[in-house]
Amino acid sequence: MLKKLRKKIRHSFGGIALYSILLPIKILPLNLLFWGGRCIGRVAYYIDGKHRRLSLENIRMALGKEKSPQELKRIIKENYCHIAQSGFEMLRALEYGKRYAHLLAIEGKENLDRALAKGKGAIGIMGHIGNITLLLRKIANEGYPASVIAKDPKDELVARFMQELRDRSNMGTVPPKPKSLVAKRSLTSLKRGELLIIPIDQNAGKEGIFVDFFGRPASTPAGPVIFAQRTGAPLVPMYIIREGRKRHRLIIEAEIPLVNTENKEEDLITNTQRLTRVIERYVRKYPSQWWWMHNRWKSQPPQKIGVSREQ
User: What are the pLDDT digits (tens) for 68-86?
Assistant: First the structure.
């Protein structure tokens, strides 16, 4: 009981801190804001021992054979700065549709237009790389009717702020639970010909399927492939990257065709693996912008299983 109370109090601090800094952040010049974000990120790296150790452990497992310990440490330090900057940007996200629209570029828009032209909606596949709040903002700015499957923070004030941000951006929200509601809302969105955005790079627990991610089995959401199999909606990878201090670029890739054979169970694994390979490619290219402090490999398969290596 006491443990739950402490956790609830700890979570409430997030919302209090958010609203206490909201006004100052809104009036600060962007250059000063991003400088402050980097400073906070540097300090957080040294005082946040729990997530620093988890981030370093994760990146060693993923990239330890490719990069030196010094490089890995430098990437995680930069990752903390990126996360702090992204937090400040989130608080100013609505302005990116007005004064700062020029700071959000888009590449590959024709790929999404081509997918939506099929009349079956489209499934946007993304990972937690770059500033995904600005990815959603850019999609909304471009006039696409869209929804995102998103889990709200535990802090009620923070969750309320995030929902308000999505509402004001005309971005629909599909909660990740219960599964029946997720399926209903997702399929309805696709039937209306809309874009459904689904992150696939966080631990899906017992409900996910295990595919290879950086050489280790990782529980991964199967929803995108299941929805694509049921509706024929194209699977379109998209991600956003930070370019310099203030600029961002949303990149939309061409549709990834589904593999369809008589073995639907194997197809589910094969197609999910193909999508995960795309996320892995993004992370390798921009390692300082991925969410390393998430325990991606927390769930493990009950027994050793084979995974498809198809690209």
Answer: 999 999 999 999 999 999 9
β-pairing verdict for 104-107 and 216-220: unpaired
* Residues 120-160 pLDDT 10s: 999 999 999 999 999 999 999 999 999 999 877 676 777 77
Tell me the two tokens of residue 219.
Answer: 């529980």
The answer to whether residue 302 sits within a structural domain is no
Quote the strand ranges of the chain, DSSP E. Answer: 104-107, 122-126, 146-149, 171-174, 195-199, 209-213, 216-220, 235-243, 247-252
Domain count, the chain: 1
Domain of residue 135: give its range.
Answer: 2-289
Which residues 6+ apart lie within 8 Å of 140 measured at CB? 97, 146, 169, 170, 171
Q: What six digits make up the tokens of 91?
A: 């608080």
pTM of the model: 0.88
